[in-house]
Amino acid sequence: MRIGPATAIAQGERRGTILATPRCMSHEPGDEQLVERARAGHEDAFDGLVRRHRRRVYGLALRLLGSPSEAEEVTQDTFVQLYRKLAGFRGEARLSTWLYRVTTNAARMHRRRACHRYECASLEDHLPRADDHGPRAPRADELVERGQLLGAIRDAVARLPALYRETFVLRDLHELSTEETAATLGLESGVVRTRLHRARQLIRELVAPVGLAS
After folding, report:
1. Burial of 14 (0-12, 13-18, 19+ CB in 10 A)
2. What band does 46 get if pLDDT is binned at 50, 70 and 90?
């Protein structure tokens, strides 16, 4: 059966092969309550926010940067910013959406610093080449092991140019709506749709040699 990249990753997460996002227990206080208590100086409330959102923030940072150590650094930066800005958080957006925005911006800054030290590779350099006789890469419908396919998809996501990777990760992997993704990235919804389409296209082209098709 032919599957898309987000579906394959989601299936991998359910099997425990990729970091999954935990669900909060229904009896726990909501984010709004914890924020109010943290503002009042209750450190246990802030600790509760960190416990609830840490794996989600780390998972996003890891998908954006591809390095566990860099993702851990960005995660710490994100919660430092949360602590500093709690007093100004007005609840106009969900806390999780706000954290996605802060995490994405922190990852961007980290990536810019890294690109000053190393040459940043583009996904275009890794895409299959084609000539007058069609693709030189193996056929997309060749049988492969699912583990190879998931690995190829993860590699492809990591190689996406940042503007496409951010959109794909937020919209398809973390399942934000188009509007939430646009708000997180500071874009128009139409731009998000365009970038998402291009991201999906690039991923399919890159992993075509190991059997992913639309």
Report:
1. exposed
2. very high
Sorted by where each starts, the structural domains of the chain and their CATH numbers stand as: 5-210 (1.10.1740.10)
Statement: residue 19 has pLDDT above 90: no
Q: Hey, which of 39-53, 88-102, 107-121, 123-137 has the most confident mean pLDDT?
A: 39-53
Q: Is this structure's pTM higher than 0.90? A: no
Q: CB neighbours of 106 closer than 8 A, spacing ≥ 6?
A: 61, 74, 77, 78, 81
- What angle do helix axes 178-185 and 95-117 make, rounded to 10 degrees? 50
Q: How many CB atoms lie within 10 A of CB 69?
A: 8
Phi, psi of 130 (to 5 degrees): -135, 155
N residues, the chain: 214
204 confidence band (pLDDT: 50, 70, 90)? confident
Give me the DSSP letters along the chain. Answer: ----HHHHHHHHHHTTSSPPPP---TTSPPHHHHHHHHHTT-HHHHHHHHHHHHHHHHHHHHHHH--HHHHHHHHHHHHHHHHHHGGG---SS-HHHHHHHHHHHHHHHHHHHHHHHSPPP-GGGGSPPEETTEESSPPTT----HHHHHHHHHHHHHHS-HHHHHHHIIIIIS---HHHHHHHHT--HHHHHHHHHHHHHHHHHHHGGGT---
Q: What is the pLDDT of residue 114?
A: 62
